[in-house]
Prior knowledge:
Chain B is mainly alpha-helical.
Amino acid sequence: MLVVQATACAxxxxxxxxxxxxxxxxxxxxxxxxAAEALRAEGVAVTVDTQGGSAGGLAQLGSGQIDVAMSSKxxxxxxxxxxxxxxxxxxxxxxxxxxxxxxxxxxxGGVRSLTREQAAALFEGRVANxxxxxxxxxxxxxxDKEPGRGTREVLDRYLYGxxxxxxxxxxxxxxxxxxxxxxxxxxxxxxxxxxxxxxxxFAAGYPxxxxxxxDGVEPVPTAIASGDYPMARPLLLVTNGPPRGPAARFVDYxxxxxxxxxxAEHGFLTLADLDGA
Amino acid sequence: MSLAAPAAxxxxxxxxxxxxxxxxxxxxxxxxxxxxxxxxxxxASSAPLDWVELLTSPTWDPAGGAYGxxxxxxxxxxxxxxxxxxxxxxxxxxxxxxxxxxxxxxRRLVRGGVELLAAVPSIxxxxxxxxxVRPLVSDLAGVPGGDSLLAAGLVLAVMVLxxxxxxxxDALAGVPRATREAAAALGLTRAELVRSVVVPAARPGxxxxxxxxxxxxxxxxxxxxxxxxxxxxxxxxxxxxxxxLVRPGQTLTTKLGxxxxxxxGTSGTHWAALSGLGLILLVTxxxxxxxxxxxxxxxxxxxxxxxxxxARGWSSRHRRDRLVAVARRGALAVPLVLVAGLVVVLVTxxxxxxDPRFWLTAATGADAGGVRDQVAGTVLLVAATGxxxxxxxxxLGLVLGEYAGPRLSGAMRTxxxxxxxxxxxxxxxxxxxxxxxxxxxxxxxxxxxxxxxVVVVPVAALATTARLxxxxxxxxxxxxxxxxxxxxxxxxxxxxxxxxGLATGxxxxxxxxAGETAPLLFTAxxxxxxxxxxxxxxxxxxxxxxxxxxxxxxxxxxxxxxxxAWGSALVLVVVAGLLLLAATPARxxxxxxx
Amino acid sequence: MSVLWARDVSIRxxxxxxxxxxxxxxxxGETMGLCGPSGSxxxxxxxxxxGLLPPELAVEGELRVVGSDPCTASPARLAELxxxxxxxxxxxxxxxxxxxxxxxxGLRHLVRAPRRALRDRAESALRDxxxxxxxxxxxxxPARTLSVGxxxxxxxxxxxxxxxxxxLLDEPTSALDAAARAAVESAVxxxxxxxxxxxxxxxxxxxARLCDSVVELHANAVA
Lengths: 277, 594, 223
């Protein structure tokens, strides 16, 4: 045990044996991972995981397996119903938008904007070729997100409303499922004619990808901050009750100037951007 | 000349506690198996579950309350069939080439290459799948993006091939030289000798090779997860089954390896249905195992065709012999080219790992820095797994090979093979429910090691037992005739003889365990931030190479991530390869002594 | 006092009699030959004397081997019996390890003794088996490097090292060539009068040369 303690001290001196456990959304993960790294340099032990996405993080928080859940969607009534004894307390650390992201050749070929009905038809597998949406003669390939991903819930809420019934996954042959943002982006980049719901911050900087306008509104910062863009969403750190101890330190860090700089660095809107809108 | 009376010296203690100890270790393995079955049965019965719907409906829609697994069963069958259809004939032919055609002094090198391929962790094959097989399938089969049952089957075929070769080589090498000589003395050509004598004599082992390959294919999660597309509800009509192979799909393991087990809670229909999927998977693997085991007991003799061929002229027989030899060498070339290709790809793309700093610095951000802590975590997991699995595997092997009577031993061997075939994702979910949630360990390195031990123990135990079975019964009788107690017989005769078997089995098992990803995601690892060495058991996760590689593989579109992924893959292969190398001298020494 | 005493002993498999009935008594220092046609169960009987039969074979009748009944002995008692009535098989079986390790194999497991004492004991046993001159300079060589005839005498020495009250030799020369057979025969002849021995052989002339008395076993009609 002495050896272990000595090693722990050498790697930055942990405060107690129990690390702060963070898990959830891959959208929030880059910011949280950098913040955790900064805090580790100050001697706070933090582990970061992304199992199961936003809903996975909230479920793990509900069952006490983690201390802070990362979520890229608001905490819903169903989450609260599933864990009645848990006081989900969300702290917003920034804002992102889910883009309907297509490949550049589709965007340049004419698919620059979609209506809600067109988007629904697309993700329900009812569109076989981009020509049907005014684009190039190219077969559509849909990558949807696996259940529980915050991105998917935001998309579902846009397409079907808060209480609308979500249809089962389509039987289309040109349809596959992805998990985190990284996987969605990697598969979009490797599949001609592909479309996927993806955080616009993760699509930024990739010239081969473009996020289309929805109902005529482009996912630009002003439209996201003002809420005109329909799939804007908060990035949240969720705790059981107000954050305490290391969790409070972590949350405070992420909303501090240093933390907000990380939010901006990863392509999200900061709290200040939101106030300015 | 008279001899001194032995009474002048104190008598030797034999160790009456040995059977108890052996029994306890074997019971530990039994508990492991019981927990896996128990948690699934408990889960499936925790809420009313419509089994008919589960087995016949292709629609899986938890939000809509529809739980049908038929499409996943189809996916599982399809990818396993593709994998075995490619890997089994190639593997058998390559094994024959290694034992019958390769010069003895080169044989060791070739076998080493195949063993190395078998030790390549499955997550590395996952990366190969994402980076190489997906684009290949996309280009050749015209599959958008490449996500398909075919891609998954191809990745599995590459994964399964070394297992089939390695086990088949052992089976063929076990055919006594006298048997070969007796047949060769009758004027059979090499090809006829192989077909009429060697293969029939080794048939049970060759079947075991197919079986182990199938078990691996059925249970693999992560490598399939990355390239199959995970699309639910794809149950084609019989006519469309072939076309469905180039479409995305879902298997039982990829469903269980996804986010749903974490989302489903600990009760309710969703969890019951997921447990039902686990049970279907478990029963399928068990059934396949039982059928294959029963088949392997029916020894066939291929005598009739030998006579036909002997009636042909000598020149045609020799021509045929040469053709067969060329075909077999060709089959051998496949795994060798795969080894060479993998080495080239890993070294050229993973050149980051050639820099010592990559090994010695901690990871920063998503894909920068080194893998120091991941290496430490993997070594810790593998070492702890080995420490748990060695005594349990040995104990179980002794019970199977020595203590149990023929009937009990047969049943227990079947159970052990079945336990060895239990998909690791089920072990991971069992660990998640029982250790993580049930005992409140959260994520813990020890939970990971316990789960991985269940992967390793059957391999080690069966290898030990197989080696015990080859013990000359006369040697055993001679030892007993000299008055040895059973515990002394075990220590002085059985253990030295079984040692190489245990070492080999432990090694192959650990090499597999080192690359297991799916069970660790649920029980032991986080993506970042764990201390290099955990300070306790509860809430003491580690970072490990497989998890790191899994995260990086998904981000394969970014050059930096891909570079870090290949570097990590090379590190993981080197770690597994070092395990293999470290045990080689011990194996040689033991084999030489035998 | 007989070292081995059997009355109406027979061996059955699933109710069918395979061997016997046979009655015999071996006195201390006597070499008794056991002969009979192939299939009469000579080797099976010998294994029955020391409890080395497979469980499906049952021994009937009254049997005392170096003072114990192998049919009713506990496992520990049976191990002790085998160390005092040592069976040497037809095929020479050596254990992995050196010549010396083989010569002391049984003894090492029976008693705790200093290495030096074990070596001395091995030397005298190897001399008794007529092997010492041939292996004295290669005691540390692997036993499997010996010739078949040498290995058979090593098996004999291994048994003699235990200072057994009874030696049971099961066709010790049938797997050997003429020269090796002569060497083993002379070793067995050298034990005559000093050891109690049961020698199984189908070679009547050999038994006549080596034994004080001979018992013939009759083949049982196969039912």
